[in-house]
Write a structure and sequence with these properties.
CATH topology of chain B: Rossmann fold
Structural class of chain B: alpha/beta
Strand content of chain B: 15-25%
CATH superfamily of chain B: NAD(P)-binding Rossmann-like Domain
CATH architecture of chain B: 3-Layer(aba) Sandwich
CATH architecture of chain A: Alpha-Beta Barrel
Largest sheet of chain B: 7 strands, parallel
Structural class of chain A: alpha/beta
InterPro entries (chain A): DUF3473, Glyco_hydro/deAcase_b/a-brl, NODB_dom, PuuE_HpPgdA-like
CATH topology of chain A: TIM Barrel
Strand content of chain A: 15-25%
Protein name (chain B): NAD-dependent epimerase/dehydratase domain-containing protein
Shape of chain A: globular
Mean pLDDT of chain A: 90
Low-confidence stretches of chain A: 275-289
Oligomer: heterodimer
CATH class of chain B: Alpha Beta
Low-confidence stretches of chain B: none
Number of domains of chain A: 1
Number of strands of chain B: 16
Largest sheet of chain A: 5 strands, parallel
GO molecular function (chain A): hydrolase activity, acting on carbon-nitrogen (but not peptide) bonds
Protein name (chain A): NodB homology domain-containing protein
Radius of gyration of chain B: 20 Å
Helix content of chain A: 25-40%
Number of strands of chain A: 14
Distance between the termini of chain A: 17 Å
Radius of gyration of chain A: 18 Å
Pfam families (chain A): DUF3473, Polysacc_deac_1
Shape of chain B: globular
Number of domains of chain B: 1
Order of helices and strands of chain A: EHEHEHEHEEEEEEHHEHHEEE
Number of helices of chain A: 8
Amino acid sequence: MKYTYLTVDVEEWYDLEYLKKYDADKSVEVIPEIIDFLDLLDEFQIKATFFVLANVVERNDDIIQEIARRNHSIGCHGYDHELLYKKNPDEFQTEVLKAKEIIQNCIKCDVEGYRSACFSMERDKLDAISKVGYAYDSSYIKFEQNQLYRNLDINGFESVDDLVYKNGDFFEYEIPTLKIGKYNLPISGGGYLRLLPFWTLHILLSMYAKQKNNFLLYIHPFELTKTKLPFSSEIGWKDNFRVSVGRKRNLKKIRKVIMLLQSMGTEFCTLGQQQEVGENNEKSIGYRQ
Amino acid sequence: MKRVLVTGSNGLLGKQVVDALLRENFEVTGIATGDTSECRDPRFNYISADLTNWLKVDAIFKENEFSHVIHLAGIAHVLKGMNISWSRYYRVNTMMSRKIFECASAEKTPIFFASTVDVYGFTDDIINESTKPKPIGDYARSKYLAEQSILELPDQPYLIARFAPIYSEEDRHDMRRRYYLRFPELCYLIGDGMDYEFLSSKNAAALIVKWVKSWETISGIVNVCDEKRHNTKALIQADRENGWANMVLWMPRWIKGLARVSVDMAFYKKPLLKFSAYKIICPMQIDRSRLNSLL
């Protein structure tokens, strides 16, 4: 494989869509617990892309600045973690600009990337983020079985590399899935990464490497720490399982996945590192680390 | 008038430093996370703040002018601390310290940083300031990284004080856990007693006041401990006079060697536990030359 984009959606555990229906003890936070993960990235000399939710910045401004200090790329994950298709376009445009400013004020650096909550991006919202100054988005996933996700219309975008699409100066990065027959299997992070044993991931990633040159991994802070989460007593077993499965050993699993991907010859890079380079009159994508 | 900033002003040492500075007629600003401070002196200004909130830190330095920054705030090394995550130690002891140092450095305000002799890790040699630090465990590592962040600041006046375990007249917990099996009844004595390095909070406060008065001539790194080592036989004797230490379990000197071998074997792959056990069975010894020259 050529490139792997490691991405983190910086949100709290209680921002998870399926936990919102329960009362949450918000005194327990997981974002401050990601230092072990940052150290892991330093150990492998990997730079990742962190999509930060603007409403967590005030409580975690030191952590966000620490991420930036370690030269990772910072993008925006929205102002809050509400699904985009529940927001009207005007409200969304105001919010997304406000979120960009909040994060930029924290890291004193331009924020160019965006990822929607639960990959709930819609075309009109995508056009809006392009209009307010974002350079790329990473919310496109071909997985209709998850009802939270949206099947984003990327009509007008051209594919410039595996997982990378371009429309004018604006880029869209796809969340990869593994195509098996007529089904798309999500293998690129979140609960799927926690749920599947490493040997299964090994097989699936080897199959994926035969289909695509680039890969993208997405994870969340609650998946990077063993911190005990104070669930409401009302939480159902299904939601409890969904949020808890594989958490304890996930950081070790991520280490193994990174080593596996490196053994496949991939180079880790951040989203938005792309720059067009003309070579022999053919357009290609160049990346700078 | 510029004020002396003391972070962690509600702590065991912080309170004494504030009192000592006020006695010397300094104007003092104290910061801690508690809602209020016990100090009612009109020359003392208290700010309740969580210093991991960097917007707040920026605002404090913007709104005040400080002549000195005495940074004492942090998470201490306690046995229960084994439940504190590395992220927490790093956030408070390293990142928060780095932020305060950067804010102080913007105005070249002299910095006093309370570090720890734990940064040296295991060693049988007598420790001096040239001894290479080999921090073991999250607490020592987080403090050492904070020290490094001061050293990276160009032309910054500073004193890094590596404190021996601190006790006060009211709180000798850290001292007693080295010779009590169960306080206040049952303690143990090995041979003629073991010698430990400690630092009285009164002596620490006195050093800080001295540094505030003459920071231009007191700089760099210094290991700080009491004038003499504390022998457990003398400590037990003093405790008995107070009606404590009614039962003393005496052990021959060779038990120390046996304990060391046992610890080496039992904690072969657990350096933090080994380090904690070594603090009791093989206490470090500190060379006082630099400290004495400063005082």
